[in-house]
């Protein structure tokens, strides 16, 4: 299973792109890239690039969607047609609708939505280039964009993916690993309290493996959190 | 603090940053309490004054508070009042009794005689509950603003634009010979001689509110191009 065209995905403790099993790809984060949006950010994990733009809180129309005592989040995750090898058909697919929903749910617990009754906070995420782990890259980008937009937040949200190949636990899967792994587990959590806001899994993992993988992911999350803070502070470093 | 002063940028707090414990400090605006800790809600400038810790956000929309003085644009004339855009997620409503002092016979007089669509008004927030915002024009300061130019800035930076006891805004007024009125909703009305220069200064304050020595920079900017 973990073999494609006779190539081993993990060999002598090294992955195809030369990473160690628990090493994440090189990460780039930029805040405030879209002047027209209230807040925006770009996050790159290796070859995966996500751009997030936040608009609002703004008045929600039509009126019947409004919540009288809090704001709602509307999120759209969209893959650019040119983001993968095979052209992605424009328009929301089943997969994109699902990811939009889980991203929205990843942020609902961390925002002070009750401050803005009858409004919406719109998060638009575009995947410019996809090479695995797009949903966690999107969450990192959206987390920065929300902070940039001045939306009150309890905490920043950090996300990354983990998985298993040939019985070895790995972090931050790329596209090839994603498609050929034994298991793939994206996770998002609040940076300080480590409260999990998104946890999905595809494939099979043993109980101990999940525990071990989650510990490693929390550890690697610290690194991503530091990069988020740096990106936010760089926005205002003159 | 001295270290920050040297490199020119004020201390920036980010959402979720633990700023101190409740036993040492008292939480103020822009923060929340969690397990005895004071935690920042915003990406913003950290302000410690006395025992209080607050975070002034660097971005964000205007949330109306009763008593705020705002500048709004009339967007619609209704049967018993006016709908006003106050640069916030919610529209504000100015009712007839709060807008005009005299008695009006609704059968004879059209309301756009007082405030018409597109008029700019300086008003006070009367109440703001659950997204329902009411305005009032009662008080000597509140009136229709004629002529002039409107500039939008980030609402949270209004105190910075005004400065300590109006020092910053008076500086701009004096140097550019303009009349300026600042709404707490981030709309600034300017009228007078060197409007373009005043706008330049205001935009600069909006962009660089997190820098130390801003007053000096603005003084320089305003006197530089005089010659």
What can you see in these coordinates?
The complex is a heterodimer of chains A (238) and B (227). Chain A is an alpha+beta fold and 238 residues long. Helices cover 27% and strands 33% of the residues of chain A. Chain A has a single domain (10-235), classed as GHMP Kinase, N-terminal domain (Ribosomal Protein S5, domain 2). Chain A has helices at 94-107, 134-148, 175-180, 207-235; strands spanning 3-4, 7-8, 10-11, 14-15, 27-31, 39-45, 48-59, 72-79, 119-129, 157-165, 168-171, 183-190, 196-199, 202-203. A 5-stranded mixed sheet of chain A has the order 5-6-7-9-8. In chain A, strand 12 and strand 13 (196-199) form a beta hairpin. With 227 residues, chain B is an alpha+beta fold. Chain B folds into 3 domains: 2-57, RNA polymerase II/Efflux pump adaptor protein, barrel-sandwich hybrid domain (OB fold (Dihydrolipoamide Acetyltransferase, E2P)); 69-145, Nucleic acid-binding proteins (OB fold (Dihydrolipoamide Acetyltransferase, E2P)); 149-224, Ribosomal Protein S8, Chain: A, domain 1 (2-Layer Sandwich). In chain B, helix 4 (167-176) packs parallel to helix 6. In chain B, strands 8-9-10-12-11 form a 5-stranded mixed beta barrel. A 4-stranded mixed sheet of chain B has the order 1-6-7-3, with no helix packed on it. A 3-stranded antiparallel sheet of chain B has the order 2-5-4, with no helix packed on it. In chain B, 22% of the residues lie in helices and 34% in strands. The chains are: A alpha+beta (238), B alpha+beta (227).
